[in-house]
Amino acid sequence: MTFRRLGAFALLGALVSSALPACSATANVGDVWMSIDEDGARRRNVFFTDSAAITCVAEVGIGRQDVTLEMFIRQIRGTTPGSEDFESMDRVVLARDFRPDVTKDRPALVTLTLVPTSVDEEGRLKEDEEAPFAPGSYICEVMLDGELQKSAAFNIDYPPCPTAVILAGTPCLGFYTFDKECPASGATGQREPTCICSGKDWVCP
Q: What average pLDDT score do residues 75-86 get?
């Protein structure tokens, strides 16, 4: 799977203090949501193939030292790059386990972030900031000591059109569908002329 983005690597999970109610005496997950920021401020459940980042955020209260917290991102619907023919699937594209510190008097935020990846010449995944996220439907799952606690569903969609001027020869397939036609001046610019996502790159007049 290609991800800006086919598969994904985790950035370091961050434990960030949050002014939230006190945690329980053992461990709990208060909430799980998706965001375009690692601090969880800008919540989203719809992202695009050209998004800068996709972060799963879990609000946790940890009252003991030996807690194992696991976070998974599971793809349940997908397609090949540039296609709109989606099909059901079930595969984990990102997973990480944490041993969080005791949160004492208030919970913390634990984050798991997808980053762009592609496949190298030897068929291995690598980080790639120039690649698109794979469109489809996903679920972020959070587990404590092997038991599912909460989850957050989200979608990655193809964006309508580039917001800025399209340059001929720049990559488009995977970010957009094959044969996608968009204004050369950008989505809110003049309607003509247009560029077409033909092959892997934009073809413009």
A: 93
